[in-house]
Amino acid sequence: MKNTTQTLLFFLLLILIWAGVTGDLSFLGIDCTLWSPYVLPSPSLVAQYLWDNTVNGKLPLSMLITLKRLLIGYVIGLLIGVPLGMLAARFTCVRNTVGVLGLGFQGLPSVCWVPLACIWFGQTEAALLFVVIMGTLWSVLLSTENGIRNVPPIYARAARTMGSSPLHTLLFVTLPASAPFVVSGMKQGWAFAWRSLMAAEIYVSVVSGFGIGQYLHYGRELQRMHQVVGVMFIIILVGLLADKLLFSPAELWLHRRWGTARD
Amino acid sequence: MTETAPHPELHDFPTARLSVERVTKTFETQGGLVTALQDVSISIREGEFVCFVGPSGCGKSTLLNIIAGLEKPDSGQALINGTPITEPGRDRLVMFQEHALFPWLDVIGNVMFGLKQKPNLNNRERLEVAKYYLYLVKMDNFAHANIHELSGGMKQRVALARSLAPNPKILLMDEPFSALDAMTREQLYGDIQDIWQKRKKTIIFVTHNVREAVCLGDRVLLFTPHPGRIREEFAVNLPRPRNINDHDLADISQRITAALKGYHQAGECD
Questions:
Q1: Per-residue pLDDT averaged across B211-222, rounded?
Q2: Is the CB of residue B144 less than 8 Å away from at least one CB of chain A?
Q3: What is the pTM of this model?
Q4: How far apart are CA B211 and CA B238, in angstroms?
């Protein structure tokens, strides 16, 4: 409760300062406007934009389009990254080849793939997906490999004496044993996927659907800074919600089970 | 109300005889080739409780791993009821020095793990069997506890239940109590003898603690290193249940320790 109050008060203060310097508090006689709305839009302008475009359905629709892209790209990234990570942990030859490739590509911001993606796939959904997958795949691969290599070998030995086959051991012992690493890798992968998709949507305008990032891009083109800030809010909100709804429960469960919880 | 009949699985007391025939095993280390076992032969009766004792590096754990099927001998073989051992199997379960319990499963989930590999049982029966073994090791009140919430002694009790649950013929115990405090160990000595008599298993127990070996074993095999081999065999004919602080038990331990020192001073091991 105390934590929530602290957080809420802090954000209230931030918004008040923001309102103060953009002239939103002039009705209280406080007017210390520093910048014009073209440089920094006021909270009321941004709120108005968000409200109008939620009511008329434009933002919800583009959210749907964006989240669909995110989810598909992310899931494909996981489906390739986790097995590749397992192979890299198991076979030195995979580690020396694909593992090192992953290490290199993980350091490459996935927006760097945008020019190539546009040439290879054109202005299509596939180009967006490709960029998201490139953002997700490598970090998931590396953390899965790291996770599996950190599993104490005694677990597999114990399982084998209990009649567990090699495949059964991999799926029901090694994989769950590496869960703390894999989940933090999935979380990082999600964050990377989200960043990649925003970058891709800003650069690639496809006719098959107007995503959130494309709203941000056109906000910039049309000098509609309240639109830009409004979309930034949505991007932050999606990130926060994904963390709180998807990953926090999983992490909490892991901490309780493994006994690593701090509070 | 009549008592419900326990599952037939619990009335089955499989056991096995075991023989090790001229087993040799060497390891390559940075210091060169180490002969962990040289020409070791043993014969163990059905339902016998045998302890392997000796200093570290004498090959006792290696031999246990060979019997478990986790390692292969360079030459010679281990046989269970006359059949050569080539891989791990449910008929020989191992209890390790560290508990090796799975942290992602709760207590009963761990005990169920081995049972789930066992065909011919449905899930309700498996649960019943798992609960019985938790009761046997006095952990039935902790069925849904997380592993990290248990003390060291409790973890080893759960590990014991997990090894017993699939009803192996042979139980292989690799220094299972060495990380526990003296009080906890003494309780477990009583419990393991009790369980051995109830479940009639063949047990091989590896330890470097001579007293522990005499307290538990029908027979104590003394190993010496470089190369690892069995130097002497001691039959322990004391009545059970045995108390580790018993006088006669101390006398036998004394004899074994003296024998061990003799080999040591002769420079045959370090």
A1: 94
A2: no
A3: 0.81
A4: 13
